[in-house]
Design the sequence.
């Protein structure tokens, strides 16, 4: 899908089966942020596919409550890690408390942004 010069795409093999409405909302926020900050191509690297067994709890990926995004090629240079953290923090702020936003494996081979709907209990 083209939005002006920006592109939203799925990495080959990504499956979105059962994506929750909350994650559709989150993806809209992520894509809008990418466009607003001119980050270029927004690529979803994982939906309900892939291996997500390293999580300390059952992964939201398998029930449509998590998406991963490619961030590895967004920046280069010594300030890169701080820019990744600033991106993570901006999306945490935009999505608020019921979403988990993680910058995983920063500067590593599996670096990506993880966004998951993880609602807090209403008391
Ligand atoms: Zn993930």
Sequence:
């Amino acid at each position: 899908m083209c939005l002006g010069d920006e592109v939203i795409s799925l990495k080959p093999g990504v499956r979105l089966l059962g994506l929750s409405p909350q994650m559709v909302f989150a993806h809209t926020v992520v894509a809008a942020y990418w466009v607003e900050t001119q980050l270029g191509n927004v690529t979803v690297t994982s939906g309900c596919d892939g291996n997500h067994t390293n999580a300390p709890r059952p992964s939201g990926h398998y029930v449509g409550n998590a998406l991963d995004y490619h961030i590895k090629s967004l920046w280069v240079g010594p300030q890169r890690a701080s820019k990744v953290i600033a991106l993570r923090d901006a999306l945490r702020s935009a999505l608020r408390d019921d979403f988990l936003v993680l910058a995983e494996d920063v500067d590593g081979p599996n670096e990506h942004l993880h966004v998951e709907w993880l609602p807090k209990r209403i008391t």
Observations:
- The mean pLDDT is 90.
